[in-house]
Amino acid sequence: MKPLPENVVSARDLSKVFRDFWGRPRVRAVNGLNLNVQRGEVFGLLGPNGSGKSTTLKMILGLLYPTAGDLRVLECSPRDVAVKARIGFMPEDSYLYRYLSAEETLLFYAGLYGMPASRRRQRTDELLKLAGLEKDRHRRIGEFSKGMARRIGLAQALLNDPELILLDEPTSGLDPIGCRQVKDLILDLARRGRTIIVSSHHLADMQDVCDRVAILLDGRVCAEGPVAGLLRKSDTVRLTLQGVSEDKLSGLLAYLERETGARPQVDRTGETLESLFIRVVTAGRQGAP
Amino acid sequence: MPPSLSKFATLTRLSVTELVRQPICLLLTLGATVLTITVPLATAHQIGQQSNLARDSALAFQFVIGMLLAAHASCSTLTAEIRSNTALTVLSKPVGRDMLFAAKFAAVAAVVLLFGLCSAAAGLLADRLAPRFFEFDALGLTLAAAAIGAPLAAAGAANAFRGARFSSTALAALAFSLWAAALTLAFFDREGNPARFGADMDWRLIPAAALVTLALVLLSALALSLATRLPAAPTAAILATALFAGLISSYLIAILPRVAAARFALRAALPDLQSFWPADDLAAGGPLDPNALLRASLYATLYTGGLLCFGTLSFRRRQF
Amino acid sequence: MIFRRILAVASQTVKQAVRSRALSSLTLLLIAVLLSIPFLIRGDGTLAGRLQIVIEYSLAAAMTLLSVTTLWAAAGTVATEIEERPLFLVLSKPVSRLELWAGKWMAIVGLDAILLALTGGIVAAMVFHIVHSAPPGSPERESVVRDLLTAREATSPDLSTLTRAPAAEAEEAAADETTDEEDAPAAAPAAPDRHAILAACTVAPNRSLSLVFAPRALAPAAGLSLAFKFASSRPERVPVLCAWTFTGADGRTTVIATTNTPGLRYTLPVPSPAIVDGKLNVTFSNLGGRIPSTVVFDPTAGGLELLVPQGGFLGNLSKGLMIALLRLSLIAAIGVSAGCLLSVPVAVFLSLFVLILLASSGYVQHVSATGVFYVPHEGPMPEQGLPDRLTLRLFEAINAVTAPLLDLDGLPLLERGRWIGGALVGQAAKVLLLYTAVVAAVGVLLFQRREIGRA
Fold first, then answer.
1. Domain definitions of chain B by residue range
2. Neighbours, chain C (3 or more CB pairs < 8 A)
3. How far apart (Å, rounded) are the C-alpha atoms in residues B203 and B198?
4. Residues of chain B neighbouring C377 (CB-CB closer than 8 A)
5. pTM for this predicted structure
6. CB-based contacts of A267, cutoff 8 Å, min separation 6
7. Helix B97-129 and helix B290-317, axial crossing angle in degrees, nearest 10
8. A contact chains, 3+ CB pairs < 8 A
């Protein structure tokens, strides 16, 4: 397998204009986008609806063709069929075949990767287990709930153990445990050197997993950089203290107020709703007969 | 307007809009119109039979293509909406299943009526265009060509300059232009000279087209009732079988063994579409029998009502 | 690996067709059509008539149904998946548009093959049921088995050797004062153009015509028949007394006398010793009748044919269905290509239009060859205006494309009990697969330029 380039995805002045039947420009979905996704990072694409995130992903996949500019994926043209053997894609909606079962769906897509039969079977079993759908393997996709369909969507994206993974709203429709599992999976894949591009409206999830993010607006990048760097307020510091008595805390706060001239804000941290949910449900399932 | 009627009107209007915006409605209607009008031109060699051929062809195209339209409209408006959960969104509002089903039928019937309107006008034009001894009605040809081309051009212009939907605009414009052409032609004779209004037009084609339209409405009810349970392919297959069997129902009943119960069951089950085929009466000359028209209308109403009852019951029990 | 991907797409398409009940609906409809037609069309009630209805009408109806549904399914399978978006995911995999096209096409053709096999099975079963309904050994059954269920290769007479009877007859005719001008024997044709052939095959009362048949392959001289049909110089169809003289290798002649009505088709068994060096020499004599009339054979339109048994009904049916499958393959290619480019209804309509065009290729060829759309029964030919001339050019262009596809159909031969040769199957395979490849190439090329993920 060819080694991954430093810039796995590279876009220069990328533009996409949708035209109507008469050839007149209708929508400028992407407008001079400049983007570099580096090897091994988890890159987040953020933006309001209509900012060009999905269009950018589709251009990376070669489903849409740029109107202007240059786009390289793994140093190849996105329209190169061979490069898709190194890419996995999880779409926003379930673009799955309703009449196939979960197992047949994975076997079908594995066939498209040209996998031999034994390897197809093996990967299908592994991914059904990963997606938690082993007991539903023979059920048709048309009968699945949205969450189950999303899991199969994720499973098929990982069939070929891709080097570049595109995830469009990966946690949409999943319960908090499912969200946690997906986020853990993303981090695990990143640790194993995979490059991941995630597009999502769930900002908290993006903050948990992404190394770098780009915020798109009207088809161009209006903010880009490492998450930590973007979120840091240079003039604000948060201290986390454990096992401090009320007296000592009062003393510390008074000292800080004298030194800084402003009363520090005090929050008593507790659990997040997500961690409470996971804790309660997990305990309940373990305790269930 | 009472609230229930208002809801019914809203649902029907929405469904009609959805249907006419689909290109297939325009394509089927345009296809039927073009075929109806061009058949006389291709059968110029059938001396003495051109008019019969033109009329029979017009009615046949209306029947067959209308059946396809009914099947598509029913499946599109019900089966597809159930599958995509759009119907659920509607039923989550204070709208009963009976009302939804009735509104869907009204929408399909409206589209079929619009199709019938276009077919009737096309039939009138086709009959006028049927050449007598290779003499073509030049004015008729011009008006017919304009009646087909103008709506498409107008819809294109409306789409280009005002962003209007091409399919629905073209369909409405087609109905208007066909009737405008037919009524204009009624003021002239075959040589293009002014004449008494309607002197050279076979106005019997209007009630004939209306009869066929009634049959299509009946088939629409069958298609819609089937669409509550079946996907598109089996619905279309059963509808085609019903059309074929209905047209030869008397013959089928006659070749059955003489078992009264079986004959009764077949007579009740099979729609007697022969009553809606007026080609033989048109060929015989003279006006269509008003009593026959009335009987056919009554039969269509009762049969359609029966089918809708079955369909409503089926839809009520359908789980999503 | 390429084939694996194509097979994956094809098997998914087949599963889709089966599980959406489209295939089962079509199968039931097909069976209903095949089984109902013999009940609905009575014909003349004879064994041959009933068989003709099954072979001609049932097969034709099945082919029409399969052509339209193939087209609909082919156009719909890709177009629907683009509209409903599963194709976004498929094309995000390492699958080229060509492989996708090929997989869809293969699935449609595969399903067609199964349905054609079912059609063939049902037709064969119906045929044998009808034949066995007649008492064994009955003349009707024997005639039907010989004329319809034996695949016979038709050979026309050697047109270059069409001659009259010995010169003595010509001298007699010249000396005969009562001979009408129209009954005078015509001169032998110098070159085999149609008018000359007709003239050569015109036989006045008390005149003869010698024919030589050189069939391509001759089974040991058993079961040969001579099929003929002639027109008469009289408007009323008065029976003509005919004599057929077969000359064997040993010089012995066999004469078979028949009384035949003009316009009807007849079959005459050929006595086996009449074959000499692989050729059949036969002389037809017009012996007149109650009201003598001149007869005219048209060998270019099957008016004189030597029928040589080459095989049985089942083999012939198989070959006919094979050619039908090749035709459906072309229709499927047209549908899939249209579906790759256009939305569902537009793709279906465009494909139907192309299908209608192909079905009208006979008329298109006729207009292109004659240069006129119709011939008035009286009066001068109407002047061709600019629309007529433009339409004629269009017809000629269409004919250039559709002409090679004419006559590549085994079913008309099957209906007449004619042998479908390997050459015809080969020719059909060559031409139809070439056309399919061209349609595929154009379709895939345009598909590659199409953006699938449009907002």
1. 3-316
2. A, B
3. 8
4. 47
5. 0.83
6. none
7. 150
8. B, C
